[in-house]
Design a protein that fits this description.
By secondary structure, the protein is an alpha/beta fold. It folds into 2 domains: 1-62; 67-239, no CATH class. 40% of the residues lie in helices and 13% in strands. The protein is built from 6 helices and 7 strands. It has helices spanning 2-57, 132-140, 150-153, 156-169, 187-191, 225-234, and strands at residues 79-82, 89-90, 108-109, 144-148, 180-184, 202-208, 214-220. The protein has a 5-stranded mixed sheet with strand order 1-7-6-4-5. It has a two-stranded parallel sheet with strand order 2-3. The longest helix has 56 residues, at 2-57. The chain is elongated, with a radius of gyration of 29 Å. The mean pLDDT is 88.
Length: 246
């Protein structure tokens, strides 16, 4: 009887251990499953924007620059101002205050790979935009910069138009005719007292060189490839203070 009772107790113990091992295995599989799902969600989230952009940008594949966005009539008159700051290179990191929103000329940083910003990137978001002091150096080299404010940044349809414009001009790193950058005008810029004119959410800027150096602006209510094409034709990189520099 004692031996039989001991055998029964052992069976109970073995059954409990077996159930515990089964439960632990199921928990382990559940943990692995949850980790896999989380990993897939992370990867999917990271890939979502590039894939979405690629899909939406296809609409511009067979159209020219002037056909993207609104007609040129959404833009105001050209504005000009005597420029200064040519070859006025400052130490990287020095914060420079610009009087204009956005700047079209002025003192700027000068550091290889930093200022000016590299020519191989045409579109910037709020997360990766170079500092103003770097982009002003791009202007000195003949770039046209399209600035967009937070109203545009928060409008997916308008933002994809700007990306489409940038893609049209992102076709050659050696043809300086395509010196162009699209960059956001951020809330931090506005906090410093620099806001676009009322009702305007896009600005084109260019630094004109020659005997009379000038800052050139044109403000628009929304993106216009037609207006940008005209602007870059009228104010090409060749008339900038340093047109042959990248």
């Amino acid at each position: 009887m004692a031996k039989a009772a001991k055998s029964d107790r052992q069976k109970v113990i073995d059954d409990i251990k077996k159930k515990q091992k089964g439960a632990e295995k199921r928990r382990g599989m559940m943990i692995v499953g949850v980790c896999v799902v989380i990993a897939l969600l992370i990867v999917g989230a990271a890939a979502y924007r590039p894939v979405k952009d690629w899909w939406e940008l296809r609409q511009f594949n067979d159209v020219d620059l002037a056909s993207i966005g609104a007609p040129a009539s959404v833009c105001g008159d050209i504005e000009k101002k005597n420029a200064e700051g040519e070859s006025d290179h400052r130490t990287t990191g020095e914060q420079i205050t610009y009087d204009d929103a956005p700047p079209a000329f002025g003192p700027h940083w000068n550091e290889g790979g930093v200022a000016p910003a590299p020519i191989d990137k045409r579109f910037y978001s709020v997360d990766d935009r170079p500092e103003l002091e770097a982009l002003v150096h791009n202007l000195e080299h003949g770039y046209t910069i399209l600035w967009y404010d937070e109203t545009i940044a928060d409008d997916p349809d308008k933002l994809i138009e700007i990306e489409g414009i940038a893609k049209k001009l992102d076709v050659s790193d050696s043809n300086f005719r395509f010196k162009f950058i699209a960059a956001p005008w951020t809330s931090d810029d506005v906090k410093e007292g620099k806001a676009f004119p009322e009702g305007k959410h896009i600005a084109f800027t260019h630094w004109k060189g020659g005997d009379k150096t000038e800052g050139i602006w044109q403000f628009c209510s929304e993106p216009s490839g037609e207006a940008l094409a005209d602007f870059m034709k009228d104010y090409p990189y060749t008339d900038s203070p340093e047109p042959n520099a990248m």
